[in-house]
Input
Amino acid sequence: MIRLTDVTKTFAGPRPRTVLDRLSLDVPRGQLAAILGESGAGKSTLLNVIAGLETADTGTVVVGNVDLAGLDDDARTAFRRAHVGFVFQAFHVLPYLSVGDNVALPLRLAGRRDRAAAERVDTMLAAVGLADRAASMPRELSGGELQRIAIARALVHRPQVVLADEPTGNLDPDSAHAVITLLRNCLHAEGATGILVTHSHAAAARADRVLTLTRDGLVETTLP
Output
């Protein structure tokens, strides 16, 4: 589902900095891969390259059957809306929309406001254990519940890929454990592929596979 081959990304400046150096990665459909690494190792840049928010200097990035190098800016934006879901540390739940409207956002951006779209929102709210909170406002929810809403929103439009950037950074350990387990289970149920970048070994241990991003590339990692 995700294949990077010899990807290099360098940021220009007085002191050019190569963040990704001939990096390769294969993540099959339905797998949640966790990527560990120190700050500045390039984890967020890796997510941005996979999402088409940054373009690789060299190498190829293929998501599904799409080679991102062949897309212009508008096509990459359309690709993200249709095929990529995002989960962030800061939740990015809109405070002035209800829980149900927040989850529905990707569908509405795609022009879908029909009964099937409403039923899909209900299905995802039920999947994350918040079926009775559709009319609630975000201020009424805990941090763990907000991240559950973010997971429902990331998956509501049936993306091929979900990218999670430090999604447990603002959560207590119990909520973090529950959220990553929920993310993994939802990905499996939906047949989507996920990449989780995190500093947390506890969060990474809930994934199907763990890698560490080093100067020498991605290294398969076994956690206790």
